[in-house]
Amino acid sequence: MSPDGKQGSSKRAAAQRRIAEKRAAEAAARAQAERRRRTVIGGAVGAVLVVIAVVITVVVQSNRTATSATAATPAHTVSNGKVIVVGSSSAPVTVDLYEDFQCPNCRNFEAETGKTLAELVAAGTVQAHYHEMAFLDTAANDKYSTRALNAAAAVVNAAGGSAFQKFHDLLYANQPPETGSGLPDSQLIAYAAQAGATGTTVQNQIKDLTYGDWVKKVTDQASKDGVTGTPTVFVKGKQLSDLSPAGLTAAVNAAKG
Amino acid sequence: MPWVATLARLLVGGVFVVAGLLKLPDPAAAVRAVRAYRLLPEGLVAPVAFGQPVVEIAIGLALVLGVFVRTAAIVSAVLLVVFIVGVGSAWARGLQIDCGCFGNGGQVAAGRTTYPWEIARDVGLLIVALALARWPRSRLALGTVLAGPSVEKELSRVP
């Protein structure tokens, strides 16, 4: 081989290498452009899908939480039918109570302080305003919070505040365990009768969940009132921190002036 | 490192998917949980309560599957900062609420709040999300497959 030939072949090899490198670079550029294109399209499709999912979910959940404007409201209630009143309207002190029939702390409060409150109401010192809530529904308790509050609405509708008070006390005295199966409707009907609310109307309203929408409304109202736990008690608008009988008596005496 | 990123994706993504799913069955409770923070005007409470879980599930799925990992990690980090600020402000204002992070109505018995734990958990997730945003490359990522042949692969064909 002549030196010229050697030089020529190495030149050719270098040229081939340059061409290969250029082709590879072009292919890489094409691959990158293709990746970018796929990413942009994929991102746009993904973003549109998320927006559609958000819109659909908002519509569906709004429908699930919607309550009828013409929903049944129990009689013997105030504040647009959302509050159940027990006691004399001439009582000097208003005590607002937020409770759930399934809430164990409410049962403890009722067991400890309920009697003191009842005495203050009986003495004409206090008018109790019950803001009931139902947020402890589970599949296991067959929506007991809602069923119990619906039954309470049926009782107050049929027989008024003092019957409600008796029914309320019976439900706390016989509260089912929070993780249990809740009281059956037949038991709620029996307690309603014991509290003084009898008849087929009460029975049907308890079984048919007539005040189901009302339960949703009052629960939502309690949340709007800023209540995030039960029991929450206000004495003349001021939240009570000491829920003992002494604490309630002291706050009522202070509010009485 | 890519396997660590895979674990990080599954952790943050899994938490977001679960947190989102748990908020869907009881929409009324979701509304109460958002309202309990007392930060949003009433008109925004329901849309946020209903829309937020969908966003959580979307970014959670993106992270778990490994598509748009960097974007999903950044969005999750932004959400976590919002959550930390929200919980911190509830704590600072003395509100007695549950964070509602995993789908309950924000109610809590007096004196039973767990703000330090809620914030610690969110800060931990935030650190992982930020690390993912910085180093998003990981194994078992669907996005790598869908994106087609990579630049490196084409260049490696050079003899």
Characterize this entry briefly.
Chain A has eight helices and six strands, in the order H-E-E-E-H-E-H-H-H-H-H-E-E-H. With 257 residues, chain A is of the alpha+beta class. Chain B has one domain.
Structure description:
- The complex is a heterodimer of chains A (257) and B (159).
- Chain A is α+β, with helices and mostly antiparallel strands and 257 residues long.
- Chain A has two domains: 66 residues; 180 residues, Glutaredoxin, CATH 3.40.30.10.
- Chain A is 61% helix and 11% strand.
- Chain A contains eight helices and six strands, in the order H-E-E-E-H-E-H-H-H-H-H-E-E-H.
- In chain A, helix 5 runs antiparallel to helix 6.
- The relative contact order of chain A is 0.13.
- The model of chain A has no long low-confidence stretch (mean pLDDT 92).
- Chain B is mostly helical and 159 residues long.
- Chain B has one domain.
- Chain B has seven helices and no strands.
- The two termini of chain B are 29 Å apart.
- The mean pLDDT of chain B is 88.
- At the A-B interface, helix 1 and helix 7 of A face helix 2, helix 3 and helix 7 of B.
- Kindly report the CATH topology of the largest domain in chain A: Glutaredoxin
- Number of β-strand runs of chain A: 6
Number of domains of chain B: 1
Mean pLDDT of chain B: 88
Question: Strand tally of chain B, please?
Answer: 0
Q: What level of helicity do the residues of chain A show?
A: 55-70%
Specify which chain pair forms the largest interface: A-B, 39 and 46 residues
Distance linking N and C termini of chain B: 29 Å
User: Please, how many domains of chain A?
Assistant: 2
Major sheet: arrangement of strands of chain A: 1-2-4-3-5-6
- Indicate the mean pLDDT of chain A: 92
Query: Any idea of the CATH class of the largest domain in chain A?
Result: Alpha Beta
Structural category of chain B is mainly alpha
The helical percent of chain B reads 55-70%
Total number of helices of chain B: 7
Rounded to the nearest angstrom, the radius of gyration of chain A is 34 Å
